[in-house]
Amino acid sequence: MSIFSEVWDYLAxxxxxxxTGGILGYLIQQLLLTGTALLLAVAVxxxxxxxxxxxxxxxxxxxxISNVGRAIPTFALLALLVTADWPGVATFGPFGRAGIATLxxxxxxxxxxxxxxxxxxxxxxxxxxxxxxxxxxxTGWQQFRRVELPLALPLVAGGVRLALVQVWATATIAAxxxxxxxxxxxxxxxxxxxxxxxxxxxxxxxxxxxxxxVLAALVQRAIDPxxxxxxTRSEDAPQTNDLPTTA
Amino acid sequence: MTLLVSAAAEPSCYNRTVNDWxxxxxxxxxRSELVDAxxxxxxxxxxxxxxxIAIAFPMALLARRFTRLExxxxxxxxxxxxxxxxxxxxxxxxxxxxxxxxxVLGLALYALTILVRSMLDGLSSVPDxxxxxxxxxxxxxxTQLFRIELPLALPVMIAGLRVxxxxxxxxxxxxxxxxxxxxxxxxxxxVFTNFKAELLAACVLCVVIAVALDVVIVLAQRFATPxxxxxxxx
Lengths: 247, 234
Description:
The structure holds two protein chains of two kinds. By secondary structure, chain A is mostly helical.
């Protein structure tokens, strides 16, 4: 089929990768957006959820924020932010057109998986382990720092990994509102009936998404303090999302 | 021309200069457009979920029967799930063209991932002694599946169905890329023509549809599994 050769030709032509509007520029922009939003979400969500989990409060909110996040279309939130007087479409440094709007949307959509998974991770630490820690005379902080946090770490990392997938996907959608990122290759291809270009952009986005996921899985495995056999499907598996809310 | 004149004669809350976010006159005047978009949104969502269930069910049964297949099926579907929707739809275009089929197929693939997982989780949540009793009572493989295991697995499976449905409603909007996004088409139009009333109305309708479908599923579950209700009430 000719469309496949069109995709191949677009990807094989070096001039499509460099310069303004090139694949590499957009790729770097989207990686920058993804990294910044993920850092912001971790900085805000992680301490909050760790604290809520430790004191065992706010569970309803921490669990349900993920359901709310799923029901709100990422495209809708981006569209609202871009059309509002602020943040609007103003260019924001290396983040490009509608940079602030995109960063806000990405950070908001990264929060639910981080908060829910972190909260559940801390709550799921076995009761007898916590009791033993208290019996040994640990203070609340020591119990958190030396018992709960290490045991919860793999699940917390899982939440960040889910957030990463979601942020990458949402960053792609930013192009639907003429925002920054690789999605622009896709939308401009489709807008100009140049489907080879649109599909070529989609291939790059999909390949990078899978690469990020593999990388995140490796990092998650590396920081597991108690390397166990791959998690088996247990009957009382913790109620975390083990799937991202894709966008 | 007449449209312009009449708009100038009686200024409404959605003309170019006023451009309010919330505008009841817009909802009245553009009623048919809103209804059409909502109907398309619902059709796409429901077809995608139905297709997802139709593929997920046999896949889950296969994965359960042949445990070797399970890792493969889960691996492929999870990898697929990491592909952003804006990239998945274009990848389907060479096969299905610029059509609603592309959107339905793409969304069904996402739903599939959630559904297969929840079906496997549900089936493995059936206690072994229940299974043993059923075998002891002389149930065959198929009757045991349909009369014992599936009813008991239903709550977990429906939890997955709810997640899949709500996220499918949200993802349908991205179908605007191929001009088949239901309310997403209105959102896209609202952004590019700076039409705030249209944009907000479409966004709100999306969330309303998601919540409404979720409620329908919960009610259906209560109806289908009366025993869980009596246990909770006791």
